[in-house]
C-alpha cells in the first residue's frame, strides 16, 4: 500500500480507504476484514453517523490502536426524524452530531470530519465557521465535503482562505468507469484547490466485478453498462487479475482514493490486490472508450478554444503554459 498527503495538509493517508458502511455489527468476520486491511498497510477507515451501528463497531475495532488510524466520519442526515433541527449542516446539528459521533466511536477527536451532503437550506458560511470552531476546539483535525456541487466546495474554500478558517482538505464523490460525471467539474476543481478525492461506488455496486449479485441482477444491467463490463473482463483476463482489481486500479490511476468494502476478508484481500496494479496505456484506452463519454460544456468548448490562435494569437504554440 502506498500513501499520499491529504489535500494540502501533512496527514499521510493510504491510497485505499476502508468503507465502514457494511459494519452492521461486531463479529469475528468484521474483525478479520479490518485486520486484513490494516495488515496491507491501510490506515483510513471511513464511516458515518447514518450508517446504523457502524460507528460503534468501528469504535470497538480501533480500541488499543486508535492513533494509528485516520478516522473519518460524516454528519448531515437526521438524528431524529421528528425534529427538523436534527438534520442539516447548520451549527446546531453539527455540534450535536459531532458529540454523538465521538461517543459512539469512543474517541476524543475525529481525524477527518465530512459534511455528508450539501444542505441548500444552510449558508455555507455557517457550516465553514462551525467546522472551524470544531477544529479549534481539538475535536476535529481536518474537514471534507461529500456529495456537493463544485461551485459550493470552491466557494467554501475561498471563504475559508479569506477568513482564516479551516478549508476542506478533500471531497468525496461517486466515481467509476460506469459513472464519470465528476470529471466535468468536481475533479478539475479538486485539482485546482489541491484537494484529495475519495470515491464511493467504484465497482458500480458490484456490476464491475463481473459477478451478478442479488442487489444488481443481470437483467437490470443495460447495454451501455454491459459494454463497460465486457471491456473490464477482457482486460482482466489479459492481465491475469480480477475484474474488480482492474476497476479499482483504474480509479486510483486517476489520482482518486477508492473507498473499498467487502463482506468477508477474502473479498477484501482480492480488492486490495489492485494496489500496485499498473494498467497498460492501451488497456486504459480500451476501458475508457468502451462507451462514449463527453465532458460537455464548458469543458469541451474551453478545450477547443484553448488551442485556437483565433483566441490567443498566432504565437500560442510558443507558450509553455500550465
**CATH topology category name:** TIM Barrel
Overall 3D form: globular
Mean pLDDT: 94
Q: How far from one another are the termini?
A: 30 Å
Short description:
This protein is an alpha/beta fold.
Describe the structure.
The protein has 322 residues and is of the alpha/beta class. It has a single domain (3-207, 244-278), classed as TIM Barrel (Alpha-Beta Barrel), CATH 3.20.20. 39% of the residues lie in helices and 15% in strands. The chain has helices spanning 28-39, 54-61, 91-105, 124-136, 150-163, 186-193, 223-239, 243-253, 265-272, 281-289, 299-305, 309-312, and strands at residues 3-5, 12-14, 17-19, 44-46, 70-75, 110-115, 140-146, 168-174, 196-200, 257-260. The strands form 2 sheets. The protein has an 8-stranded parallel beta barrel, surrounded by 6 helices. Strands 1-2 form a two-stranded antiparallel ribbon. Helix 4 (124-136) links the parallel strand 6 (110-115) and strand 7 (140-146). Helix 1 (28-39) runs parallel beside helix 9 and helix 5 packs parallel to helix 6. The longest helix is centred in the C-terminal third of the chain and has 17 residues, at 223-239. The mean pLDDT is 94.
Comma- or semicolon-separated keywords:
322 residues; 12 helices; TIM Barrel; 8-stranded parallel barrel; 39% helix; AKR_Detox_Biosynth; oxidoreductase; alpha/beta; two-stranded antiparallel ribbon; Aldo/keto reductase
Amino acid at each position: 500500500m502506498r500513501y499520499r498527503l491529504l489535500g494540502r495538509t501533512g496527514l499521510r493517508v493510504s491510497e485505499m480507504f476502508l468503507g465502514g458502511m457494511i459494519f452492521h455489527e461486531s463479529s469475528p468476520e468484521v474483525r478479520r476484514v479490518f485486520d486484513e486491511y490494516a495488515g496491507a498497510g491501510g490506515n483510513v477507515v471511513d464511516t458515518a453517523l447514518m450508517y446504523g451501528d457502524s460507528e460503534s463497531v468501528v469504535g470497538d475495532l480501533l480500541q488499543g490502536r486508535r492513533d494509528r488510524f485516520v478516522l473519518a466520519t460524516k454528519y448531515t442526515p437526521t438524528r431524529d426524524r421528528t425534529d427538523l433541527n436534527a438534520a442539516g449542516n447548520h451549527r446546531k446539528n453539527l455540534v450535536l452530531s459531532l458529540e454523538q459521533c465521538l461517543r459512539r466511536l469512543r474517541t476524543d477527536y475525529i481525524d477527518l470530519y465530512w459534511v455528508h451532503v450539501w444542505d441548500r437550506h444552510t449558508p455555507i458560511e455557517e457550516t465553514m465557521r462551525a467546522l472551524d470552531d470544531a477544529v479549534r476546539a481539538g475535536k476535529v483535525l481536518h474537514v471534507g465535503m461529500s456529495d456537493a456541487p463544485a461551485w459550493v466546495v470552491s466557494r467554501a474554500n475561498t471563504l475559508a482562505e479569506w477568513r482564516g478558517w479551516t478549508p476542506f482538505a478533500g471531497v468525496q464523490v461517486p466515481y467509476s468507469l460506469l459513472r464519470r460525471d465528476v470529471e466535468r467539474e468536481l475533479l478539475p476543481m479538486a485539482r485546482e484547490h489541491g484537494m484529495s478525492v475519495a470515491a464511493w461506488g467504484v465497482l458500480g455496486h458490484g456490476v464491475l466485478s463481473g459477478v451478478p449479485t442479488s442487489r444488481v441482477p443481470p437483467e437490470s444491467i443495460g447495454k451501455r453498462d454491459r459494454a463497460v463490463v465486457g471491456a473490464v473482463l477482457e482486460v482482466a483476463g489479459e492481465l491475469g487479475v480480477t475484474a474488480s482489481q482492474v476497476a479499482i486500479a483504474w480509479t486510483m490511476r486517476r489520482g482518486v482514493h477508492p473507498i473499498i468494502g467487502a463482506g468477508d476478508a477474502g473479498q477484501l484481500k482480492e480488492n486490495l490486490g489492485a494496489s500496485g496494479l499498473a494498467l497498460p496505456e492501451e488497456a486504459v484506452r480500451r476501458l475508457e472508450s468502451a462507451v462514449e463519454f463527453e465532458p460537455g460544456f464548458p469543458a469541451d468548448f474551453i478545450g477547443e478554444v484553448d488551442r485556437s490562435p483565433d483566441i490567443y494569437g498566432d504565437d500560442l504554440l510558443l507558450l509553455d503554459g500550465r
